[in-house]
Amino acid sequence: MSNAKTLLEFAGVQSKPANLTGATVIIIDAQNEYVDGQLPLHGIGQAVDKIAELIARARKAGAPIVHIVHKGRAGGLFDPDGNGGKMIERVLPSGARVISKTLPNAFAKTDLDAQLKAIGNDAIIIVGFATHMCVSATARAALDLGYRTTVVSDATATRTLPDPTDKGNIDAQDVHRVALAELADRFASVVCLNEIPL
């Protein structure tokens, strides 16, 4: 059996990560709901460590940073007035742009596209949560809007999901890997943090 290929490989396109100095870093939903709320994610601690490392590298390189914050309903998931809606303290924005969203796709009903165009970078580096949901939805939409997207695999995480085809579950690690594979097929360059060049 031959090795599988991505659609990008079939098209003869070499997938390369964005250079940090020429990209905007987008941090999606780094909020407490995913740490100690109702939606704890597998590997969240390691992913937050990587996001903090990326923030430090981005600041040193002068790369713009945009934080996306999911705004839920009062009393529900990502309650804007509750702990779940608050940003993870370790990766607080400290002067970075912050955009609130209500849908998985961070471009939907927000001014993210306008802010990125004002910054002037067509390359974006996406990290955050959850891999299969808001990271995926945003990376897919970014292609339609003309952005060159890099997703940092070890700075994202997700959770175990119910399998809709039977009565079992799909393990979080498998959900994470499949979500990244889907993005790497056409929508983004998927790499580890140590593969992001300056």
Give the structure's gist in a few sentences.
The chain has 5 helices and 8 strands, in the order H-E-H-E-E-H-E-H-E-E-E-H-E.
Helix proportion range: 25-40%
Q: Could you say which overall geometry the principal axes of the C-alpha atoms support?
A: globular
Q: Assign the CATH architecture.
A: 3-Layer(aba) Sandwich
CATH class: Alpha Beta
- Element order, helices and strands? HEHEEHEHEEEHE
User: How is the main sheet built?
Assistant: 6 strands, parallel
Beta strand %:
15-25%
Rg result: 16 Å
Relevant CATH superfamily: Isochorismatase-like
Q: Figure out the total of helices.
A: 5
What is the residue-mean pLDDT, rounded to a whole number?
A: 95
Q: Which structural class matches the secondary elements?
A: alpha/beta
End-to-end gap: 37 Å
- Strands, total number: 8
Q: How many domains is the backbone divided into? A: 1
Could you tell me the CATH topology label. Rossmann fold
Helices and strands in order, then pairings?
Layout (H helix, E strand, L loop, with lengths): L6 H4 L12 E6 L15 H18 L3 E6 L26 E5 L10 H8 L3 E7 L1 H14 L3 E10 L3 E2 L6 E2 L1 H15 L2 E3 L7
Parallel strand pairs: 1-2, 1-4, 2-3, 4-5, 5-8
Antiparallel strand pairs: 6-7
Quick tags:
198 residues, 6-stranded parallel β-sheet, 30% helix
3D structure, described in words:
This protein is 30% helix and 21% strand. The chain is of the alpha/beta class. The chain has one domain (25-195): Rossmann fold. Helix 4 links the parallel strand 4 (123-129) and strand 5 (148-157). It is globular. The relative contact order is 0.20. The model has no long low-confidence stretch (mean pLDDT 95).
